[in-house]
Structures are given as structure tokens and as C-alpha cells.
Known about the structure:
There is one protein chain. By secondary structure, the chain is mainly alpha-helical. The chain is built from eight helices and four strands. A two-stranded antiparallel ribbon has the order 1-2. A two-stranded antiparallel ribbon has the order 3-4. The chain is globular. The N and C termini lie close together (12 Å).
Amino acid sequence: MDAEDLYQRRIADRFDAFDQDGNGYISREDFTTAVSRLLTTFGIPFRSDKGQAVSGGAEAFWQGLAGIADVDGDQRVTRGEFVNGAVKRLRDSPERFAEIVRPFVRAVLAVADQDDDGQAETGELERALLALGVESHTAALAAESLDVDRSGRIDEEEAVTAFARYFMTQEP
Ligand code: CA
Ligand code: CA
């Protein structure tokens, strides 16, 4: 397997993570599914400040992704659209990706931050990632590695940067 194949395989894994219901395309439903699982896990009502923020953040994330990748405008991002559109374009402009995901990341961290001290702890974030459908080993590793300064807490900047890096993966 050469570097390009490995790269394509990583991208395929990212696609599967977004396609939460596994029906072969990414749509708004995948995002709303993830949001309700997250809110249920943390016992947060949909109609609360945190619930509305995470829902609004997910919608902005979906709109941003669709705006870049949904070439035929059918409100579905297929595997092909994802690989050829989203990943390549976002790799060329990581700051645009950061902009698209920031409200969602901020809201997820707020949900995970149960004692409202302004920062999510690594264990809380791991729980949030599990609720979002991240596989357990990956969630533990991600929560750990997100804590770049080893403070035991995750701040927004660390999370946005790590998410962008994860999504963009490495160039072939
Ligand atoms: Ca789907
Ligand atoms: Ca489409």
C-alpha cells in the first residue's frame, strides 16, 4: 500500500465517523443524531442554553460542510463529494475549517464542562467523544492528546486545532 492509498483509507475512516447512521452519505440527520446522543449522555435538555448552543453549532458545521462539499446540492454529502471536495479544499484552507467547526467545538466543550468552570476535563471530553460515536480507544487517546499543555483540561483552542489536524490528516 503506497502513501496515497493510506491517505485515502484515512479519509474513508473520517467519512464513516461523520456518517453516523451508516446509510452511505452525510446529511443533517447524522448531525442531529450525534447531538441528541450527546445531550442524552450528559442529561442536558435540548431546550436549554447548552442544548441550543450544541444544536446551533452542529447546524453551522453541517451548513459549512455542505457548502464546501455538496456539489450537486442534494443535501447529501456522498463519499466521493467528501473525498474530492471537503478534504482537499479544507486542507488548502485550515483556517476556514477552524471557522466552520469552532461553534460546535465550543458548545461540545460547554456540555462536557459539567461543573461550569470554563474548561472541560479530559475524562469529561472522553465521555463526550464516546457519545458522539467515536470508538472507545480513539476517544481515550484523543482526549489525552488534546490536552497539549498537560493541564488535565481542554481549552477551545486546543480542541479546534486538534480537530482540524485529525480531519485534514496527513498529506500523501
Ligand atoms: Ca448518514
Ligand atoms: Ca450531494
